[in-house]
Amino acid sequence: MFLENPISGTKKRGWIEVVSGSMFSGKTEELIRRMKRAKIAQQRVEIFKPKIDKRYSEMRVVSHDANSIHSTPVAKSIDILALSENIEVVGIDEAQFFDNQLVDVCNELANKGVRVIVAGLDMDFQGKPFGSMPALFAIAEYVTKVHAICMRCGNLAHHSHRLSADDNLVVVGEKEIYEPLCRDCYHEAINESEKEESLTTLR
């Protein structure tokens, strides 16, 4: 497969791959798989994640299926450049939590001949494009869209529905806070929440 085998020749080529989807769709699992295959190919790899993501481990990227790989937590996307010297494959998890400079960072790495693999949520809990992800879709050579299973009807899930009443954009959490839903079930859930809020206000 082209994505997992470097092009032979004297010129070192880089590119950007984006893996996106809702919560529990397997984004991180796919990122870990690609990074581990690069390590098997004896390529120099490094994976980064935002410091705010401490759900499973401070120093490892961990999927919901408990697969993991060592990572470097960083506060700002620009830090990735300084920590990527002599690295052939750079992985970035939870890209939606990084600042907007991440797009420039990924471009700069790819222009230097680095294979960049980015994983992140495509939409926030309100169903809106999340952070730098739309721009990353635009500049990436390869985009992979993965899906979870809707917790209400069993169809493919596209949305991350927040179960808590917290309306902050960034709330790091797991199954106690989020559930994956298809388009129809997501809008039903939103309508249910709005009705409950109206009833509470009337009381």
Task: Annotate the secondary structure layout.
Layout: E1 15-21, H1 27-40, E2 45-50, E3 60-62, E4 68-70, E5 72-74, H2 78-82, E6 89-92, H3 102-111, E7 115-121, H4 133-139, E8 142-145, E9 148-149, E10 156-157, E11 159-162, E12 178-181, H5 183-202
Parallel strand pairs: 1-7, 1-8, 2-5, 2-6, 6-7
Antiparallel strand pairs: 3-4, 9-10, 11-12
Describe the structure.
This protein has 203 residues and is α/β, with parallel strands linked by helices. It has one domain: Rossmann fold (3-Layer(aba) Sandwich). It is 28% helix and 24% strand. The chain is built from five helices and twelve strands. It has helices at residues 27-40, 78-82, 102-111, 133-139, 183-202, and strands at 15-21, 45-50, 60-62, 68-70, 72-74, 89-92, 115-121, 142-145, 148-149, 156-157, 159-162, 178-181. A six-stranded parallel sheet has the order 5-2-6-7-1-8, sandwiched between helices. A hairpin with a 6-residue loop joins strand 9 (148-149) and strand 10.
